[in-house]
Amino acid sequence: MKRAADKRPASVNHGFEDDCVTLPIDVILPLRTLCKSAKSSRKYRQIVASIAQIGIVEPPVVVPNPDKSATWLLLDGHLRIEALKDDGVQKVECLVSTDDEAFTYNRQVSSLAPIQEHRMIRKAIERGVPEEKIAAALDLGTRSIQKKIKLLDGISEEAIAILKDKPAAGAVFDALRKMKTLRRSRRPNCWSTPTPTPSPT
């Protein structure tokens, strides 16, 4: 009977490029048209308030236009882009998707990954924005913001790299924080040859 071929785990595919890009808003092309009532919605008003308080926390997601022009296609963040236009903003920092299929992106990714949100909140804190303002802009409690700020405390760099663009639940980070790093040097060598016991003479 033949042994089954070894199945090696597939490499992790990241949903976004490592670095954001700052783009003029007029080179970003929306892939859908907003309905007339969009700007009167509660979500749009919340985005406007958030931008006024702390700027963009969740960057729009773009991909280079496949027609080789200098334009970019907007995959996610249509309301944010409209709010920025209404505010007279000329440029915006964007996440660059590694998937150029808009329908695939919209089906698989619906919100900012926790690690990306953590980094954006930390960036706002570094700019001097108070936690209370961030909480009000995101419609969250101050304790929730503090928890997001400390999200990666005690998490290994390897785990952060794997989860940086994944929609992982908060419980995942709590579990990872409790795990200990496996140190090979402390493990007994189970396969070493035992030392022979000298026989009595």
TrEMBL record:
InterPro entries: Chromosome_partition/occlusion (IPR050336), ParB/Sulfiredoxin_sf (IPR036086), ParB_N (IPR003115), Plasmid_RepB (IPR011111). Residues 21-115 form the ParB-like N-terminal domain. Transmembrane segments: none annotated. GO terms for cellular component: chromosome. Pfam families: ParB_N, RepB. One of its GO terms (biological process) is chromosome segregation. This is ParB-like nuclease family protein.
